[in-house]
Specification:
Elements: H1 3-26, H2 33-40, H3 44-50, H4 56-59, H5 65-74, H6 82-91, H7 95-101, H8 105-119, H9 122-145, H10 155-181, H11 186-208
Helix pairs in contact: 1-2, 5-9, 6-11, 7-8, 7-11, 9-10, 10-11
Length: 225
């Protein structure tokens, strides 16, 4: 990374850090982009150059979910269904929930802060739903494009499967948010998410267990595949 690119990345990180601090202190909707720009010593136009929408200031750190989900689906081994891959990805012991379960108080503060900000802002809730919708659409496209007989290739079936799988994700987000905002047994939250997610996927498994079973070595669909 050259000096110019490094400076741009440092500016982007500074703006995002200031935005998160102000959002956490006062709530997302109460903070104006002009205030963030002033504290970062940049122009408001500069903020929008890095973050086209105000919501991007928060979701820039959360938007890699879809890419990580697709990577988990792409890397599933032969004989594994897409349900297996998504279940493992969503119920794995990683991220803030795992840190909270391990007794990390700072992680608990971050988890509460994020969910309180989103719960308190219609704009952030709308952006959250759009992020999930985008991930669902991308997953459906990936399933429909898989080579060979790894999945049924019609678009409707792939879209139905993707929505069913991502429905579990939506439900688990709601579970976490309710529990975090109620301050209910945070040390048990990760275990409860895994348990309830496992039961939800077991329910889907009656209909989706045989869908998207990989029958050839891992290959990521490319152009022309």
């Amino acid at each position: 990374m050259g000096l110019r690119e490094l400076k741009k990345e440092q500016t982007r990180t500074l703006i995002a850090d200031i935005a998160w601090r102000l959002f956490a202190d006062r709530g997302f909707d109460a903070v104006r982009v002009a205030e963030i720009a002033r504290e970062a010593h940049v122009s408001e136009a500069t903020v929008f150059n890095y973050f086209p929408r105000k919501e991007d200031l928060l979701y820039s750190r959360l938007d890699d979910f879809g890419e990580r989900l697709l990577a988990a689906v792409d890397s599933r081994p032969s004989g594994a269904s897409v349900l297996d891959a998504v279940r493992t990805f969503l119920t794995g012991s990683t991220g803030l929930l795992a840190q909270v379960a391990a007794g990390d108080d700072e992680a608990l503060v971050r988890l509460r802060t994020v969910h309180r900000m989103i719960a308190g802002s219609p704009a952030l809730r709308a952006r959250e739903q759009q992020t999930i919708t985008d991930a669902t659409t991308a997953l459906a496209a990936r399933l429909a494009a898989e080579p060979g007989d790894a999945a049924e290739t019609d678009d409707v079936t792939a879209y139905v499967a993707a929505n069913a799988l991502m429905g579990v994700h939506r439900a688990l987000i709601d579970l976490v948010r309710r529990r975090v905002l109620a301050d209910e047994a945070p040390d048990r939250l990760a275990a409860d998410v895994r348990a309830q997610g496992t039961r939800a996927f077991a329910l889907l498994g009656e209909g989706l267990a045989g869908y998207g079973v990989r029958s050839r070595p891992n290959t990521r669909p490319g152009k022309g595949s």
